[in-house]
Each structure stands twice: as C-alpha cells, then as structure tokens.
Amino acid sequence: MDWLTDNYVNILRGFGETLRLLGVSGALALVVGTLVALARVSPVPILRGVGAFYVTIFRNTPLLVLILIAYYGLPEIGIDFGFFINISLAMGTYTAAFVAEAIRSGFNGVPLGQAEAARAIGMPFTQSMRHIVLPQAFRLVVPPMASVYIALTKNTSLAATFGIAEATFRMRGLFNDYASQMIQIFLGISLGYILIVAVISWVASAFERRWAVA
Amino acid sequence: MSSTVLYDAPGPKAQARHRLFGILTIIGVIAVLALIVWKLWAEDQLTAEKWEVFYTPRFISLLAEGMLQTLWIAVLSIAGALVFGLVFGTAKLSDHAPVRWVAWVVVEFFRAVPLLLLIIFIWFYAFETQLGTIAPLVIGLILYNGSVLAETFRAGINAVPRGQVEAAYAIGLRKSAVMRIVQLPQAIKIMTPAIISQCVVALKDTSLGYYILAPGLTTIGRDIWRTFDNRLATALVLALLYIVLNLLLTALGRWAEKHITGARPAQSLQKNPGVAEKP
C-alpha cells in the first residue's frame, strides 16, 4: 500500500482537479443545456431548428473529438483561454446537449392538463413556461440529470489525454512507479470515482425527496 | 392544428412577433458563422495546404481505412456487450442469491468506473502479454457497455407483464423456457430504443482508443495533423465523419425499430417526446 501512503497528497490533488473540471463544465452545461431545451420547445420554428441542430451535432460527436477541436483547433484561430478552460468548454458544450434532452424529457413528464390550464387562463408561452411547466419539469428532471452529471464525472477522465493532472492522469503516473501494485492502484482510484458518483446520486435522491409532490 | 399544448396557434400579432424572433435568430446564426469564417480566414486556416489532404485520394482511402477499423471495433464491442449484458442482466434476476450478488457487484463496478480509466488499466496490465492495442479497447468497451446493457435487459425483462410469466409457468414451461420463449422476445421489443442509443455511445467511445493509439479514425487523424500541421481542419473533418456515422446508425436503428417491433404511439406534451440519454 506504499503507493497510497507516499502519494495521497497527489492523488487528492488529482481528484481536486477532477472536481474542478466537473464544476466548471457542469455549470456551463446547465446554462447552455437549459437554453437549448427552451429553444427546442419554443413557438418560433427557427429557434426550434437551431436547438435541434445543436443537439444533433454535439450529441453525435465523440467528446474526444470535441476536445481535440477545443484544445488543438481553437488556439490556432486565436481562441485560447488556457487549456483548462478550453477543455472545459468542450466538455460543457457536449454535456449541454444531454442536459437539453433530459430537460425536454422533463417537459414531457408534466401532465398535459397543467399546460392546458395555463393556456386556458390566458398565459402566453413565456409565462406558462416560467410559472407552470419549468418548475415542475425541473423536479421531474432530477433523476435523468443525475445520470448526465454522473456521466460527466466519468468523462472528465478524458482530460488526462491532454495533460491535465486529474485522477486518471495520476493513476497512469502511479502505474509507472508501482508496476507491481497495479490492481490495487486501479481499484483505489476507481473507488475515488465511485465516491463522487455516490455523492451525486445521494444529493439527487435528497432533492427528489424534498421536491416530491404530496 | 398545432402539435403542442405549450402555446396556442399564433394569431396575426404573435405570427409577426415569431417572424421577428425568427429573423433575429437567422441574423444571429449568420453573424456567428461569418465570425467563424472570418476568424478562419484571418488566421490562415482556409488555405489549400490545410485542407488539400482531404481531397487527395491517397488520404481519403486512409481515412476510409480508419473508418472501417472504427466500425470493426464498434461491431466487435457491441456484439460482445450484448452477450455480456444478456448474461449479467439475466444473472441479476437469478433465483440464486449469490449469482445475483456477483452480477450486481460486476455490473455496478463497471458502470461507475470511467471507461478511459478501465482501458488504460487493461492496456498497462496486459502490456507484457503482447495483447496489442485493439484488445484492451474492445475489452473495455465490452465491460462498460455490457454493464449498461445488463441494466437495460434487467429493466426490459421486468417490464414484461407479470401475467405473461405466470401463464407460461401455468402451461408447464420450465424457468429457462419461460425466459427464452416468453420474457426475452417481449423484453427485446421494449428495449430496442435503449439498445440503439447504447450502440451510438459505443461507436463514439471507440475514439478513446486515441489514448493508447489503437487503430481507428482519431488515430489516423493524429497521423494526418502531425504530418500536415492542420489540427483544426483535421479535427473538424473527424467530427463530421463521426456525426455521419452516428446519424446513419441512428437511422438504421429507427428503421429496425419500425420494421421489427412496430411503432407505439404515446401521448405527451409534444409530438416527438425526447428520450433521455446518457452522454
């Protein structure tokens, strides 16, 4: 177990970096994803088209290729916020497509009568969205959103390919130094990821219980 | 008639407003596109030397080769994952508690671990065995996607109405026959959309082979930009190729769903309800 006792500071730093990636790209994904979901159900046909186009493009491109574009490509045309932000940009815009789909599935879970009632009392699209549909949709959306964010947690490992010293990157370093204890190291780092995933599921189920209707 | 209950059929005023928003959106999109083109042009990205690779026959055939390798790895992984998923999905429903526990631990573990972490581990661990790079990638993809599919299979089998199983037992079928003849055929019908979206996930994840330089589109792309110093152009072409592959796969899946299982109409706020997927 000397790999752990000698390196726990670096491993914790690695998971810190994983969490930082998760936080930055997760926040970006939430904002962009909500906007895209709203565009997709709006009454303006062209906005709907743009939303659908966004989801199609970003959902069908591998995250790795998006990071290649953001990490190698964007600096070539002068868009360079530093590699951490550029990678987070790729992860955020990729995850936004899935956030948008999760929220849209939440719209569909809101009972028909709610939207009909909102229309019947004369609410326009923006009001019925803001007061009736969105608050209920967000509640329904907690479980699928949790799985989107769990997937994002795991996807942050791709940053290791581009030299960000997060948990997976640290594991590879440890493999070089402690070749005989590979299985232990793998299980140990896995446990770290499993803990993050467990916290996300726990928070999600807490929210679900808190926001449960009746 | 409008297909949604979220808003009324627009009147003349609303139509004018929607037109205005539509025009603003178009202007916005055109502005963004123009900005991109201008940036590309200003930074000398639109030159022939950056792009000529992609209309040179020799490199087109190289990319086609990479695409075939990617497809081959995807097919191997999906086939393996379906078998893995079937075995562990039914094991999770076993009557024998130890079998259930083992299946639960295996499935939950491989679902929770990042795929790249898994691939790197297999690659390092098997380094001395001269396994190459394709095998670690395929094994990783099978373990991960298989575990996701195991959950799908379990949910699908559980979604088959209870009466079907009871009726099957009542006419004297044994446990394995109930599963094989009654539960699985109906479960597969329920699960088809989930299986198709998992196939797209597996196809996208073949790109992770880049880390261990397994053959495939992304690795070919790496060779190209290292030779021609055109990273942005290459990455954009790769994205386009993957998008086309995935859309074809999705279309194939839709076709199969329609012709094999038959469409099921569903009532919802919108005409085409979205299916929540995992990235």
List the helices and strands and how they pair.
The complex is a heterodimer of chains A (214) and B (279).
Chain A: H1 2-41, H2 45-60, H3 63-76, H4 83-109, H5 112-120, H6 125-140, H7 142-155, H8 167-177, H9 182-211
Helix pairs in contact in A: 1-2, 1-4, 1-8, 1-9, 2-4, 3-4, 4-6, 4-7, 5-6, 7-9, 8-9
Chain B: H1 12-42, H2 48-51, H3 57-91, H4 97-112, H5 115-125, H6 134-159, H7 162-170, H8 175-205, H9 209-212, H10 217-228, H11 231-261
Helix pairs in contact in B: 3-6, 3-10, 4-6, 5-6, 6-8, 7-8, 8-11, 10-11
Structure, explained:
The complex is a heterodimer of chains A (214) and B (279). With 214 residues, chain A is mainly alpha-helical. Chain A has a domain at 17-164: Orthogonal Bundle (MetI-like fold), CATH 1.10.3720. Helix content of chain A is 83%, strand content 0%. The longest helix of chain A has 40 residues, at 2-41. Chain A is flat and about 70 Å long. Chain B is mainly alpha-helical and 279 residues long. Chain B has a single domain (56-261), classed as MetI-like fold (Orthogonal Bundle). Chain B is built from 11 helices and no strands. Chain B is flat and about 75 Å long. Chains A and B meet through helix 2, helix 3, helix 4, helix 5 and helix 6 of A and helix 1, helix 5, helix 8, helix 10 and helix 11 of B.
